[in-house]
């Protein structure tokens, strides 16, 4: 994020996108230069996205391109996904900005724990149920096979069930078409790309007024970038952060939620991705401030409906930076515990 000035040596664990590796940046520039020469700025891309981008992204994601629509990202696609409903049920914990967008559009938003959802206690056939899988933000929790089967039986209990695959790069796996999938490139590329997708979209979607997706030349450049392996240059394929997670927890000497002594290995394996939720005692804003003063930037749990925690997100950070961060976090939490008793 421009405009944020950290002390030299600050380790940023807020999930800031790292700069692209040079081969990816050069490939992107070449693709964009070529597409700018061919497309006219006044042409409006088709409502569901440029066919070339739908084909390239569909192939990359292993999703039928005919049923794939290009969007400007997950938050931008929320209004369409709410159509026919006035109530959004978000699984807790979650990325709360989705609730902010929904409330802004006049929808009622409620939060529900995964257990309650799976037990059928949240069911409402006028509501959209929204879960994130795999690697839910903020704690990395994914749904197990039995949970996905159970969720499938709940499809008729809601207006629709949306599965947010923002973190699918960590555990790519096909999902049943009974769920509406929504995704974004922003965790790979950074939010500046302004590209996401919805799958499957009904035929009626194509008749809706155009709302976005980026301009045509941008979409064409991205199609060429994907075909030339650009997303793989950014992601590795798939990204395996499991070992780093264990290593980081070891350095911290304390488990994130979903780990810890009372938790079995099959439950623990549901957690993946490059972020974890760490319980803290006392005032969460105080802990966030004290960590920043000691050279580690983290996100407050309350931004994800998880008060009493901080979220550590390490995509793009080196092992050396994680070691430095762990030492500083341990110092701050030890001092904080001494002070708050
Ligand atoms: C679960 C989840 N969904 C969506 C987003 C944002 O996606 P977009 O930028 O495409 O709106 C984030 C970003 O942190 C996220 O964590």
Overview of this protein structure:
This protein is of the alpha/beta class and 341 residues long. The protein is 37% helix and 16% strand. The chain has helices at 22-38, 51-61, 74-81, 97-104, 114-118, 145-153, 186-189, 216-227, 230-235, 242-252, 265-268, 284-293, 319-340, and strands at residues 11-12, 69-71, 87-92, 108-113, 124-132, 158-164, 180-184, 196-199, 275-279, 296-297, 299-300, 309-313. Strand 3 (87-92), helix 4 (97-104) and strand 4 form a beta-alpha-beta unit. Helix 10 (242-252) runs parallel beside helix 13. It is globular, with a radius of gyration of 21 Å. The mean pLDDT is 91. It binds pyridoxal-5'-phosphate (PLP). Pyridoxal-5'-phosphate (PLP) binds next to helix 3.
């Amino acid at each position: 994020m421009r405009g944020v000035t950290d002390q030299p040596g600050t380790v940023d664990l807020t999930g800031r996108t790292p700069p692209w590796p040079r081969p990816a940046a050069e490939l992107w520039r070449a693709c964009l230069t070529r597409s700018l020469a061919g497309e006219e700025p006044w042409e409006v891309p088709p409502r569901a996205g440029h066919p070339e981008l739908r084909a390239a992204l569909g192939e990359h994601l292993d999703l039928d391109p005919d049923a794939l629509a290009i969007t400007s990202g997950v938050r931008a696609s929320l209004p369409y996904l709410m159509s026919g409903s006035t109530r959004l049920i978000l699984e807790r914990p979650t990325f709360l900005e989705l609730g902010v967008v929904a409330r802004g559009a006049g929808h009622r938003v409620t939060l529900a724990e995964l257990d309650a959802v799976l037990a059928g206690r949240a069911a409402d056939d006028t509501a959209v149920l929204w879960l994130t899988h795999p690697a839910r933000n903020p704690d990395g929790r994914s749904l197990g096979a039995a949970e996905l089967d159970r969720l499938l039986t709940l499809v008729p209990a809601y207006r629709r069930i949306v599965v947010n695959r923002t973190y699918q790069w960590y555990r790519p796996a096909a999902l049943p078409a009974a769920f509406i999938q929504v995704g974004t490139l922003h965790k790979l590329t950074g939010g500046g790309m302004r590209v996401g997708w919805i799958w499957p979209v009904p035929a009626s979607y194509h008749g809706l007024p155009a709302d976005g997706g980026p301009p045509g030349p941008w979409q064409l450049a991205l199609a060429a970038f994907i075909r030339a392996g650009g997303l793989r240059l950014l992601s590795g394929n798939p990204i395996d952060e499991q070992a780093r997670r264990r290593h980081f927890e070891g350095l911290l000497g304390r488990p994130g939620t979903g780990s810890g002594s009372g938790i079995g290995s099959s439950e623990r394996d549901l957690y993946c991705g490059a972020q974890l939720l760490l319980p803290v005692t006392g005032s969460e804003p105080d802990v966030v401030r004290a960590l920043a003063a000691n050279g580690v930037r983290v996100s407050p749990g309350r931004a994800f409906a998880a008060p009493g925690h901080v979220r550590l997100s390490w995509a793009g950070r080196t092992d050396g930076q994680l070691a430095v961060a762990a030492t500083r976090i341990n110092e701050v939490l030890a001092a904080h515990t001494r002070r708050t008793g």
